[in-house]
């Protein structure tokens, strides 16, 4: 059974940078303090996960695709996707193939309907306006798109490459992909994942900043979209 691993943490956690090389740390020297905190936290969390799940003493070398998506030079290591929103940080590891993840703090947006009208299809927009909580529906559609685009190495400017059918939990995309989209609303957070269709299990963990361990979490009621 193919499983993916999802790790959650907070940007306010104290992360050890001891598993990051001097060259990697030097890349953050010119960043703003806020961006440096995000950068350090994400890579430190990735390094801790690779230590626990793959036995890596230091974070392995990273390369970047033509679209800017990072990946490990060592192809035996898992694919990964990092995402953050406000203080929420998540890391997705997937051995089965390319993956993408997104987390969003479901904050109020006064102009969310205008954004939805521009970014979503007519079918999606109509579905959104029919929901009891349309802002939650907005974040669901937005988060699913972001996860798929991160899997593909795309950007927010390419949202028209994927069209969702929320009523039937299906989607179409350009290019067509053998993927499934997963999503769950967790309190004030919306989370979405884009995983290879063969992944049938998701193992979730919370990072313990004091011990450096990953604490297993109970399964949440994730819903899925299949490609058609």
UniProtKB/TrEMBL annotation:
Residue ranges of domain 4'-phosphopantetheinyl transferase in the record: 100-167
GO molecular-function terms, A-Z: transferase activity
Family annotation (InterPro entries): 4-PPantetheinyl_Trfase_dom (IPR008278), P-Pant_transferase_sf (IPR050559)
One Pfam family from the record: ACPS
Keyword field contains Chaperone: no
Keywords assigned by UniProt, alphabetized: Transferase
Recorded family membership: Belongs to the P-Pant transferase superfamily. Gsp/Sfp/HetI/AcpT family.
Stated name of the protein: 4'-phosphopantetheinyl transferase superfamily protein
Organism per entry: Rahnella bonaserana
């Amino acid at each position: 059974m193919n499983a993916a691993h999802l790790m959650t943490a907070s940007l306010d956690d104290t992360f050890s940078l001891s598993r990051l090389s001097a060259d990697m740390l030097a890349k953050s020297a010119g960043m703003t303090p806020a961006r440096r905190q995000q950068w350090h936290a994400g890579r430190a969390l990735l390094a801790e996960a690779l230590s626990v799940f793959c036995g890596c003493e230091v974070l392995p070398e990273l390369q970047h695709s033509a679209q800017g998506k990072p990946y490990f030079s060592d192809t035996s290591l898992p694919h990964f996707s990092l995402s953050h929103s406000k203080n929420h940080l998540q890391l997705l590891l997937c051995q089965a193939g390319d993956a993408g993840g997104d987390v969003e703090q479901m904050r109020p947006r006064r102009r969310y309907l205008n954004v939805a009208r521009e970014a979503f299809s007519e079918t999606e927009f109509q579905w959104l306006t029919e929901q009891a909580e349309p802002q939650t529906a907005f974040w669901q559609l937005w988060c699913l798109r972001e996860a798929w685009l991160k899997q593909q190495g795309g950007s927010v400017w390419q949202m028209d490459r994927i069209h969702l059918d929320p009523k039937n939990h299906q989607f179409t995309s350009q290019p067509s992909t053998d993927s499934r989209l997963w999503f769950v609303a967790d309190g004030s957070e919306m989370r979405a994942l884009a995983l290879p269709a063969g992944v049938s299990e998701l193992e979730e963990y919370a990072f313990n900043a004091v011990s450096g361990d990953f604490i297993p979490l109970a399964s949440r009621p994730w819903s899925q979209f299949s490609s058609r």
